[in-house]
Amino acid sequence: MAAARAIAALGRRLAGSLRLSGARPGLVAAGLPGLTLNPCHRNLAQAEPLCHARFLHATLPRKGLEEFFDDPKNWGEKTVKSGDAWNIKQLRAKSSQDLHKLWYVLLKEKNMLLTLEQESKRQQKPMPSPERLEKVQKSMKNIDLVVREREIALRLLQTGHEKPVPGEWRNDFLGRTYWYSYKEWPIPWYLNKKYQKRKFYYLPHVNRFIRLRLEKKLRLRNRRQNLEKKKRKLLEKKFPHLAVKSQSQ
């Protein structure tokens, strides 16, 4: 037993010295530079070269900051052809892996268009085809909606709740409706004085103010819509050729 312990201690010291010196056991065992011995095979003919190792990367190694700029073919052009935005119906037919890949493609395109927008502002020139940025943002928003739909459907199947944390809709003392998420308390709710002080109802005299708040919200929405209509009419009068082109599309 003492001899076995001494041999084991010597083996641990040898392994520690090899680890500290940076030597590779595969290279030492093979005796060949640039080769590592596969422990599954006993002959040196099936040794695997280290050059086959491949690191994980998201972009091509031959491209760097050039991806923040548009294609050189489009430099100096006033208009650039682009497709339509991804709608929800098209995105629902794709898998989650494809949506993940598409999200990063759109993210790179968005960064490129934002760089182009800032450069156009710096040179005080119009950005070529600025609608591309709106299409990319709309596509990313639709992807987010589709992913959220799938998360909600999966959560309903697993837990039966739509929200990530179960709860219920409640009213505060001002009549505002909000989502109350259930929480864990160290003592029961009927013994918790802090919880009992909270009011999840409102008195009848608050109904008048609820009506006034709703009326104010609707008035602001109508005013915003009227301002957008007036702005659109002014732009159509100022640029009639663009108005005809938008109507034809």
Model description:
Helix 4 packs antiparallel against helix 5 (about 130-160) and helix 7 crosses helix 8 (about 240-249). The chain has about 250 residues and is mainly alpha-helical. Strands 1-2 form a two-stranded antiparallel sheet. The model is unreliable at about 20-55 (pLDDT under 50). The radius of gyration is 33 Å and the shape is flat. Helices cover about 55% and strands about 5% of the residues.
Sequence-ordered SSE layout with sheet pairings:
Layout: H1 2-21, H2 25-30, E1 35-36, E2 48-49, H3 88-92, H4 96-123, H5 131-158, E3 167-171, E4 177-181, H6 193-197, H7 207-238, H8 240-248
Antiparallel strand pairs: 1-2, 3-4
Helix pairs in contact: 4-5, 7-8
The overall strand count is 4
Q: What sequence of helices (H) and strands (E) makes up the elements?
A: HHEEHHHEEHHH
What does the overall shape look like?
Answer: flat
Task: Tell me about the largest β-sheet.
Answer: 2 strands, antiparallel
- The main sheet orders its strands as 1-2
Would you summarize the structure shown here?
This protein has 249 residues and is mainly alpha-helical. It is 53% helix and 6% strand.
